[in-house]
Design goal:
By secondary structure, chain A is an alpha+beta fold. Chain A is built from five helices and five strands. The chains are: A alpha+beta (200), B mainly alpha (387). At the A-B interface, helix 1 and helix 2 of A face helix 1 and helix 13 of B.
């Protein structure tokens, strides 16, 4: 289909006057800009001393939440392992020794090196057991060290539970919406500040 | 024998020590300045305010593995960085870094006093610096190094002409090639006879060409990272790379000294450092004034580096051959006429400004015509191809 003449906008290069073709004013202008920046406050964060203020929806290292009795909240439903695009979650479930759920994980491993930190596991979890914290500076000297098992993931929870920077997407302390009928109604207070603290 | 050589040796020691220390310090200053310009903080970890950063870098350069590629020409490969430092250091021999006098019994703040061909010597030695670049690029036996070296040689040879010719006006005016005489001429005649006031165009062209000579932004095409990795020093590492770096910074110091001496009146400043004063305090003041001028030029060069983007190669050559070379010759003619007919010196000042504006206007008209030849008028739709 031919292009209609009225659809065409003709753009011409801006013409160069005497002022521009002298170059020196432009150089002075550029220098003025850079000199102005010299007196502006640097935007640098002095990283190891000064920690960045990350938004609460930052997706960092995973944690495995505990319920109000300090047990692992996970019900070994395998939804996170299924949702994971990187196949980095390895769960072995078993019959739960407790009366309020059928299964619990006897093994829960996340390969933190393989994980792409997409947050799909967190989206998939029906009981808000797995969450992504804002810990970002994760290091290790071996690959084996970077495969986090259940205890390690629970310890991440213990470490981050009281730092006042809970992930914004989910709640903790009680089992999530899927287990609502298992939680006594008086414990189902939804606003975060009214949620019961975890029993250690 | 030893008595006559002693002042030289002391001067050499002072100059070498000062330049090497100043280079390290300048690298720190440049990094800080560029950081502030980009709203960063710059080096601040080693020592107070990061002052020892250059020392740490130097230590790193010494301890690093010194790689000599197997396919390189070993002798030339080793020779190139030596030449880079040697030539720029040699050029400093005739540059006065403080007050000098005709009387040989007084202390002379210059390594080789009263060299009558001072400027010729500086240009002769300075031109040798291109050897280090060409040899480095050639001996590396590497495409990128070679391309960088070729660019550098074309650039340095092109800019040598406006550099030399812009100085000729100053030389004509002073009737001397001796740098000390050039200072004395400006100092004796007073502030308004500094060459930057009498010959502003020559000063501008000298600074531009000198920047190009030292391969610094915006003329750093021989080593532009985006196109040539590292240019001629791609294959160099550790101390040999540091020597190229040292050579570049020494070059910057040298051209800043030359600019201060030839256009800013050297150690002269009205009321603070006048030619008649000869006490020790006056000497110190004169050195202070000169160093302050040099520092100003160096900071200006650094700021230009972090402000202006790099030229395209054809623009680089166009600037040298189409703008700077004709302008310097016109400027030279202006000075010759002024000398011949004994016109007052402000004629040169006015003439320089007219020349500069005229050249800019001509450039604007030519650019406009070029643009018009490129653009297609809206009526001819054939530019869109068959409809």
């Amino acid at each position: 289909m031919p292009i209609d003449q009225k659809d065409i906008t003709w753009v011409e290069e801006p013409s160069i006057g005497l002022w521009e073709s002298m170059y020196l004013p432009a150089i002075a202008q550029g220098l003025a800009t850079t000199v102005r920046h010299i007196f502006q406050k640097p935007v640098t964060q002095q990283y190891p001393e000064q920690r960045p203020q990350l938004p609460l929806n930052y997706r960092g290292v995973h944690r495995l939440n505990r319920d109000e009795r300090g047990r692992v909240k996970c019900v070994a439903c395998m939804l996170c392992a299924t949702a994971c695009p990187a196949h980095c979650i390895d769960i072995v479930g078993d019959e739960a020794p407790w009366e309020d759920r059928d299964k619990y994980p006897i093994k829960f491993e996340i390969d933190e090196l393989r994980c792409i930190y997409c947050g799909m596991c967190e989206e998939a979890c029906p009981v808000d057991a797995i969450e992504l914290t804002s810990i970002f500076d994760l290091t290790g000297s071996t690959r084996q060290e970077m495969i986090f098992d259940k205890d390690k993931l629970l310890s991440v929870y213990d470490k981050t539970v009281n730092d006042g920077k809970d992930p914004a997407r989910t709640t903790r302390g009680v089992l999530g919406p899927a287990s609502d009928n298992l939680v006594p109604p008086e414990r189902m207070a939804w606003p975060i500040d009214q949620l019961p603290a975890a029993e250690q | 024998m030893i008595e006559t050589m002693l002042p030289w040796l002391i001067n050499i020691a002072i100059v070498m020590g000062t330049i090497l220390t100043a280079c390290a310090f300048l690298i720190y200053v440049e990094r800080k300045l560029s950081a502030y310009m980009q709203d960063r903080m710059g080096p601040n970890r080693v020592g107070p305010f990061g002052l020892l950063q250059s020392l740490a870098d130097g230590l790193k350069f010494i301890l690093k593995e010194d790689v000599i590629p197997r396919h390189s020409d070993r002798f030339l490969f080793l020779l190139a960085p030596v030449l880079a430092v040697l030539t720029t250091m040699l050029a400093f021999a005739v540059v006065p870094f403080g007050p000098t006098s005709e009387n040989p019994d007084e202390w002379q703040f210059v390594i080789a006093p009263n060299v009558d061909i001072g400027i010729v010597y500086i240009f002769a030695v300075g031109s040798l610096a291109v050897y280090s670049i060409v040899l480095g690029g050639w001996a590396s036996n590497n495409k990128y190094s070679m391309l960088g070296a070729l660019r550098a040689s074309a650039q340095v040879i092109s800019y040598e002409i406006p550099l030399g010719t812009s100085i000729l006006g100053v030389v004509l005016l002073t009737s001397s090639l001796n740098l000390e005489d050039i200072i004395h001429f400006q100092a004796d005649n007073g502030f308004w006879y500094w060459n930057i006031f009498t010959q502003p165009l020559a000063a501008l062209i000298f600074l531009t060409a000198a920047l190009a000579e030292s391969n610094r932004m915006p003329f750093d095409l021989p080593e532009c990272e985006q196109e040539l990795i590292g240019g001629y020093h791609t294959e160099y590492s550790a101390m040999k790379f540091a020597m190229f770096f040292l050579g570049e910074y020494t070059h910057v110091i040298t051209i800043s000294f030359l600019f201060s001496v030839m256009f800013l009146g050297g150690w002269h400043f009205p009321w603070i450092a006048e030619p008649g004063a000869n006490t020790t305090l006056d000497w110190a003041l004169k050195i202070g004034v000169l160093v302050a001028k040099v520092a100003m030029i160096i900071v200006l060069i650094m700021m230009i580096r972090w402000t202006i983007p790099r030229f395209r190669f054809d623009q680089l050559m166009g600037l040298a051959w189409k703008a700077l070379v004709p302008l310097t010759f016109f400027n030279l003619m202006l000075v010759m006429f002024t000398k011949q007919f004994d016109w007052p010196l402000w004629v040169v000042t006015i003439g320089s400004i007219i020349l500069f504006v005229g050249a800019a206007g001509l450039n604007g008209i030519l650019a406009q015509r070029h643009l018009r030849s490129l653009s297609v008028s809206p009526s001819s739709s054939t530019a869109l191809g068959p409809v």
